[in-house]
Amino acid sequence: MEHGIRPAQWVRKGEWLVTTAPQSSLHLPERFARKLMQQGDVQTTGDRLRIRLFRDEEDATPPYWMDLEILYEDDFCLVVNKPAGMLVHPTVPGQQETLANAVASYYACTGQKLRVRHIHRLDENTTGPVLYAKNEFSQLILDAAMREKAIERIYVAFVQGQVSSTLLKIDAPIGKDRHHNNRRRVSPSGDAAVTHVEVVETYPDADVSLVRLQLETGRTHQIRVHLSYAGHPLLGDALYGGSTTYASYQALHGEELRFQHPLHRDEISVKAPWTPLFNTLRSTFNR
What we know:
Elements lengths: L9 E4 L2 E4 L10 H9 L3 E4 L2 E5 L16 E5 L3 E6 L16 H11 L7 E2 L9 E6 L2 H12 L4 E9 L8 E3 L2 E3 L7 E3 L7 E10 L4 E8 L6 H8 L22 E9 L6 E5 L4 H10 L2
Antiparallel strand pairs: 1-2, 2-4, 3-4, 5-6, 6-8, 7-8, 9-14, 9-15, 10-13, 11-12, 13-14, 15-16
């Protein structure tokens, strides 16, 4: 693991990060470092280094107020617990009731002049943590971490059938379903996709299993496609063959998010509490 600037080595002063650590310990991307230098955003005074990382920014995302559950926040990152039935960002002009709009409202209400920068997405009815970068530096570092598969996303799901404990990994490429615009399917010509599976509990009377899942890749609908392909569609996931007897939308929840902090490089682990749907399902199946 790379080491960054330790907490005792830096302080924020307005738009500036002030540190006694060497510039190399920030691991600034080369192009970004050049831009900062050209803009006069890097200054040295004695053994102190000042870098303007916290500029006020304008964002075109219209604010939409809702009561957000903040799971983690500091000067560099924000993690929000996304509810079911909400898109991460607008998909058509004029759409405003999305998580991006809610985050824009949160920033405005807390006096933070920031752009909304999501690092990853969740499907509309999938719940759990969504990570945002609060400045350009953080976005560059976290985007690179996503590309390098260094951000761990752990999910839980209720699925149909008794999942075998021998099902540890689903390695099957995913592509578009040419017969259905909104669906994806396992396809030899698709993009590589790997999902790791752990059986948590099985409920023989209901013919249901609770599984924990970790993504190695992040394809659209990956978990939903892979579990359906394995013969265990998610409860409530009608698009991929799941029964709606117990749930009206897919029973999929982001349980934990792990990432290396952009500045100090310590691992941050953020857990999202189970939703009422998940608690109800578990109670029902445990009777």
